[in-house]
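Here is the promised in-class demo. Please do not try to memorize the tokens; focus on the logic of going from shape to residues.
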């Protein structure tokens, strides 16, 4: 038993039953599962909102799914889910509520944190954002010299960058094409340099996005951006027209010199990686407009409601979370690929990396004890079909099992020319062909039947049995994006709940930050840093030598 009254996960009867079932299924091939059940292709599918989810190409039977759901019941996934939606402090190590779902709650909802309904505050900020976004888009908000704002540069990192940067890319075809919207995150000065080198400071708005407003990368870049602006405009008063802040920390925002009236607030119950539908989405809202932004929130809400109310048998985030556990914990899969067949989703997987890996990259359970079961996978992937010509070889014929999500759309975006629209079927033919090849492979007999010389037969044989989920929607809209992101948020939640880890803290990023602060004076001044290890000491010396110091 744990301190929190739970039996160690891998000692529960549900876990043991899954391990046994895995052994029983060891020699079963997807070819057999499909042959045994002609309805599998339609039966193993679910529909939520605009998303059609096909999970037939997974190494599971009805019994596997039943056993996985029993594991979810034994670990009280739905109990923790309800506690999250109620605003309980389920982020135990930071003693915080986890309420990103409140960011998309309807105006009349009541969600309380410490006895206060937070929904009116959420909508007050959304209204303030909408008003500001409209003024920038219409030209009513001008820069210090009276020029119209034509460039928006978001400065933030991690959750204060990846979400809006990804979503802007996804929804580019809905964006005002007369606005230049850029994202700066890296403390490498090259990032800010490239983002600003061709911009007119008089037409540029900087959005400084930082939940804490203490993140060194963001504050350093924001300070450099202010210097760049003031160098051109020569008047401190310009800051008020060219800088706004998105933060929970009004004090630090004011200290930086940004008018608190130009601050868009969010709250400590919104985790950084769960924040792009909060004030952190201001750059996106300016780009696509408040109405489209609200459509996106509707999409999030649709998936929230599904997760909150759908029974276990048809609950898609639960299903996807459990399938990940099936592979990670019972098939020893180390990673999970997300492979979107949409150019607009080029930053989607990078966004999911933070969502998943910062949430579930933990090795201590909520009771403070080391886990002795695997937790979050390495999440990776890039848009098809580029990946097909790079790393798919390993997915098809390598020695590692890599479960993958394929995400595609029936329609290309509306603004493509007829000629480019015609390319869409080819893109999607690849999409369908890949999951088919991964699942069913090609037997040695099939290869031989093509007249392939015997010595090449093993090389040209595809084992198959590589599991995939297919997510298909008609088109990529703001609402569909919201549905997809909320789906992954809740999938990650399910896995963290089963593994009994705190998916909402991120202590693992702290040590590097502290050490960077300690090492910096050694680089700049050659200062003696007490306790520096021999390797780092030698590297710092080489760095200084190379820089001629
Ligand atoms: O990488 C650690 C982290 O705390 C993330 O969780 C967060 O999204 C990011 O840094 C940025 O933090 P902030 O918004 O406070 O600048």
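The designed amino acids, position by position:
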């Amino acid at each position: 038993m744990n301190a929190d009254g739970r039996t160690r996960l891998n000692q529960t009867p549900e876990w043991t039953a899954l391990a046994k079932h895995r052994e029983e299924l060891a020699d079963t091939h997807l070819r057999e599962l499909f042959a045994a059940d002609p309805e599998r292709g339609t039966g193993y599918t679910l529909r939520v909102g605009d998303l059609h989810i096909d999970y037939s190409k997974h190494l599971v039977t009805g019994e596997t799914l039943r056993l996985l759901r029993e594991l979810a019941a034994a670990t009280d996934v739905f109990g923790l889910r309800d506690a999250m939606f109620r605003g309980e402090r389920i982020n135990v190590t930071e003693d915080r509520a986890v309420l990103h779902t409140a960011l998309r709650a309807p105006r009349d909802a009541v969600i309380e944190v410490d006895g206060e309904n937070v929904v009116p505050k959420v909508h007050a900020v959304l209204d303030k954002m909408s008003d500001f976004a409209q003024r920038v888009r219409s030209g009513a908000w001008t820069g210090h010299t009276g020029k119209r704002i034509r460039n928006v540069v978001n400065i933030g990192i991690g959750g204060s960058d990846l979400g809006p940067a990804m979503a802007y890319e996804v929804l580019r075809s809905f964006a005002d094409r007369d606005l230049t919207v850029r994202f700066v995150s890296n403390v490498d000065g090259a990032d800010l340099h490239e983002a600003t080198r061709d911009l007119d400071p008089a037409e540029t708005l900087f959005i400084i996005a930082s939940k804490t407003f203490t993140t060194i990368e963001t504050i350093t870049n924001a300070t450099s951006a202010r210097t760049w602006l003031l160098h051109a405009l020569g008047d401190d008063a310009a800051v008020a027209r060219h800088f706004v802040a998105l933060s929970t920390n009004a004090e630090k925002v004011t200290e930086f010199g940004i008018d608190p009236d130009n601050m868009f607030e969010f709250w400590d119950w919104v985790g950084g990686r769960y924040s792009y539908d909060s004030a952190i989405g201001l750059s996106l809202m300016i780009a696509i407009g408040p109405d489209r932004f609200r459509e996106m929130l509707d999409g999030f809400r649709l998936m929230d409601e599904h997760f909150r109310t759908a029974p276990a048998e048809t609950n898609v985030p639960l299903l996807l979370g459990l399938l990940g556990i099936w592979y990670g914990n019972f098939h020893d899969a180390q990673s999970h690929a997300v492979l979107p067949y949409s150019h607009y989703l080029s930053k989607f997987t990078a966004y999911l990396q933070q969502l998943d890996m910062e949430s579930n990259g933990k090795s201590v359970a909520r009771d403070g004890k080391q886990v002795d079961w695997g937790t979050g996978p390495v999440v990776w992937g890039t848009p098809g079909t580029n990946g097909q010509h790079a790393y798919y070889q390993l997915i098809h014929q390598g020695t590692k099992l890599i479960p993958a999500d394929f995400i595609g759309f029936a329609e290309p975006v509306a603004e493509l020319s007829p000629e480019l629209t015609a390319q869409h079927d080819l893109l999607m033919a690849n999409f369908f062909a890949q999951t088919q090849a991964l699942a069913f492979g090609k037997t040695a007999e099939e290869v031989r039947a093509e007249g392939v010389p015997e010595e090449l037969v093993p090389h040209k044989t595809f084992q198959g049995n590589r599991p995939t989920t297919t997510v298909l929607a008609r088109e990529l809209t703001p609402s569909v994006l919201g549905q997809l992101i909320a789906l992954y948020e809740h999938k990650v939640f399910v896995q963290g709940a089963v593994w009994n880890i705190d998916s909402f803290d991120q202590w693992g990023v702290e040590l590097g930050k502290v050490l960077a602060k300690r090492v910096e004076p050694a680089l700049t001044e050659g200062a003696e840093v007490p306790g520096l290890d021999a390797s780092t000491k030698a590297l710092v010396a080489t760095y200084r030598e190379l820089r001629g110091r």
